[in-house]
Task: inverse folding
């Protein structure tokens, strides 16, 4: 079953062992993936394609699979290197016009009708009469040209980009123009989440390498596939770079992958995350009888600090973006907090704004005013202090599978406090309700959001990359005030404003993200609480993301906004409560057939440290709904420990 689609994604006759991967095979796979919303089908299509790539690559050819994978996720390098595509519409229209001879006006008119420049490029190509068949495109050719486009800068770069794109388009056949243009736009729109790619890659590797020559029963194949997918996801969460993982996979196979691909300083891993809790009683119930620690939950920006053996330092955001340009002061301060015996490390920490004179903690907003790039140390107004709460790599050794108490001991042993620059997250290991309550109040008084409560001992306290784990709980002051946790939602639609607000969107349609189904489920319309200035900013950000039809992976339900957006922008939102809804699709089928909606949603802030895939999921929403229902059935009585 995993390979059932091989014949469909293959290209007949033109792909022999040792040949470069035909771009036609990749785009055929894309078009079949785009045509289905079923995750299993997407997975088996991709598995079939990757399997073919592996079968037809010569030994030691890692690039065929590597470049194919990158094109599937529409990236040209690991996340943290940031070689990005995102070519503007007008440049692409120009290139389409040049390569097809159609006028700019016709292309623009088509775009208005179709709402997808990729489709317009394909229509334009197919309406063109060609005298001879162009040489077929290959994955390495497309990949290297896309990289050249992404990397070219400077004043003559526009003309260069148009010329490369025109050349690529001239060679396109069938679906190719559609996907080349979408790749260039930076939005592939086939609803292909990275998780599916990882699973498919694992399945293809199991079937190509490990099963070769062996006769496995159906049950054995199924269990090996599942095991393989788990290994792949675990390895990738620790070392999220295909540049290392794919060569290792092809050389050593899946079963040994973990031996060769371990957490490595310089490659940011996906951080561990916490689950919300509403009451101290809930913390005690979850951690019953086991040792745990409470730490201040600082209100800053997550910073993963890496130091390599050679002394070079990198600071990464929650989303693996390189933040050295935003925090040159952090980099400059760092050597002062390192002890001599500390060579290489990965620290998990929060970068927090502090008042220059009093040393008091300041809210996140102070940091968010900083530019993201080209910050000069001498221009910095707000000082930043690093509060370290975890050490996940030290002197050549990953520490993920050590208990938190051991990691914390190593952290304290190898780093030193520098007032105003570096400190350890304040913690208390007290375990009674009164102690936690007192510490929570203290944290809020000191300017924190509340507490993080973490398991201290045993394998339950290991560092779990990329996981929202029950072994880390967050206890925010807002929850105790009965407000509930905020949600991070994706802006998927806009409603034009009325009255004074006709030049901007006056309201927005929000959605949560279901990582299993890989779909965005609508949850509410939000339209109050925005200042004119904010609406203008949202307009500026969202207008370029407008599309005429909802993307295939958006499940709109009954929502009918005036315009749809590419799901990209994430907002943090608070709501008065949650209710069942016949209109919206969030968490449909989890609590009831109907979806769940937010009542009186309020915009808190833009979360540009989160991508659309990091948005709140339907399980969290149904959990919140059920907790609220439980609280109401108790007649608003406080639960144990509040
Ligand atoms: P939030 O919206 O609350 O920041 P999140 O989804 O970004 O949530 P959570 O796992 O829910 O992430 O909350 C943990 C976040 O809190 C971390 O990403 C980190 O930035 C911050 N933080 C502050 N202090 C700590 C601490 N002592 N331990 C872990 N994380 C901390």
Result:
């Amino acid at each position: 079953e995993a390979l059932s689609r091989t014949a469909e994604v293959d290209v007949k006759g033109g792909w022999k062992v040792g040949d470069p991967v035909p771009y036609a095979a990749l785009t055929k796979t894309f078009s079949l993936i785009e045509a289905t919303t079923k995750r299993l089908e997407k997975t088996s299509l991709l598995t079939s394609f990757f399997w073919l790539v592996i079968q037809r690559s010569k030994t030691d050819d890692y690039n065929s699979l590597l470049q194919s994978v990158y094109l599937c996720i529409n990236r040209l390098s690991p996340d943290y290197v940031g070689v990005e595509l995102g070519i503007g519409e007008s440049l692409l229209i120009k290139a389409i016009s040049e390569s097809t001879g159609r006028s700019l006006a016709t292309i623009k008119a088509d775009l208005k009708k179709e709402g997808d420049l990729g489709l317009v490029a394909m229509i334009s190509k197919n309406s063109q009469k060609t005298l001879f068949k162009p040489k077929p495109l290959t994955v390495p050719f497309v990949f290297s040209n896309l990289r050249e486009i992404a990397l070219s800068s400077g004043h003559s770069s526009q003309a260069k980009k148009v010329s490369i794109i025109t050349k690529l388009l001239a060679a396109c056949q069938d679906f190719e123009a559609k996907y080349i243009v979408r790749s260039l736009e930076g939005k592939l729109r086939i609803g292909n989440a990275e998780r599916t790619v990882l699973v498919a890659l694992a399945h293809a590797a199991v079937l190509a390498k490990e099963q070769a020559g062996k006769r496995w029963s159906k049950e054995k194949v199924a269990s090996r596939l599942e095991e393989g997918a788990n290994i792949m996801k675990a390895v990738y969460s620790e070392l999220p770079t295909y540049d290392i993982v794919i060569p290792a996979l092809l050389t050593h196979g899946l079963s040994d992958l973990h031996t060769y691909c371990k957490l490595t300083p310089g490659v940011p891993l996906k951080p561990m995350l916490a689950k919300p809790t509403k009451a101290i009683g809930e913390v005690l119930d979850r951690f019953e009888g086991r040792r745990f620690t409470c730490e201040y939950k600082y209100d800053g920006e997550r910073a993963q600090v890496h130091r390599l053996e050679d002394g070079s330092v990198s600071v990464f955001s929650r989303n693996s973006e390189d933040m050295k340009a935003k925090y040159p002061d952090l980099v400059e301060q760092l050597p002062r907090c390192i002890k001599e015996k500390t060579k290489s490390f990965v620290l998990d920490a929060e970068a927090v704004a502090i008042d220059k004179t009093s040393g008091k903690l300041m809210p996140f907003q102070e940091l968010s005013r900083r530019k993201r790039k080209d910050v000069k140390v001498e221009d910095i107004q707000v000082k930043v202090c690093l509060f370290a709460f975890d050490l996940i790599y030290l002197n050549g050794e990953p520490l993920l599978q050590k208990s938190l108490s051991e990691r914390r001991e190593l952290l304290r042993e190898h780093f030193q406090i520098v007032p105003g620059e570096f400190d350890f997250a304040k913690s208390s290991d007290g375990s009674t309700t009164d102690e936690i309550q007192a510490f929570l109040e203290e944290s809020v008084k000191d300017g924190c959001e509340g507490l993080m409560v973490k398991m201290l001992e045993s394998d339950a306290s290991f560092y779990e990359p990329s996981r929202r784990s029950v072994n880390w709980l967050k206890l925010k002051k807002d929850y105790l005030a009965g407000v509930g946790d905020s949600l991070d939602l994706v802006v998927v639609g806009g409603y034009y404003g009325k009255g004074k607000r006709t030049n901007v969107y006056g309201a927005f349609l929000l959605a949560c993200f279901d990582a299993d189904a890989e779909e965005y489920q609508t949850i509410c319309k939000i339209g109050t609480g925005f200042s004119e200035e904010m609406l203008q900013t949202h307009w500026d950000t969202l207008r370029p993301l407008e599309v005429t039809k909802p993307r295939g992976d958006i499940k709109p339900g009954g929502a009918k906004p005036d315009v749809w957006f590419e799901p990209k922008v994430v907002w943090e939102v608070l709501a008065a409560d949650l209710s069942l809804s016949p209109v919206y699709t969030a968490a449909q089928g989890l609590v009831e057939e109907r979806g769940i909606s937010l009542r009186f949603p309020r915009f808190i802030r833009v979360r540009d440290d989160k991508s659309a895939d990091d948005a709140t999921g339907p399980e969290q929403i149904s959990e919140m709904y059920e907790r609220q229902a439980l609280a109401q059935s108790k007649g608003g009585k406080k639960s144990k420990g509040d």
About this structure: The pocket of adenosine-5'-triphosphate is lined by residues 273-274, 295-298, 302, 318, 350, 389, 425, 452, 474 (CB under 6 Å). Residues 516 and 623 are 16 Å apart (CA to CA). The mean pLDDT is 90. The radius of gyration is 26 Å.
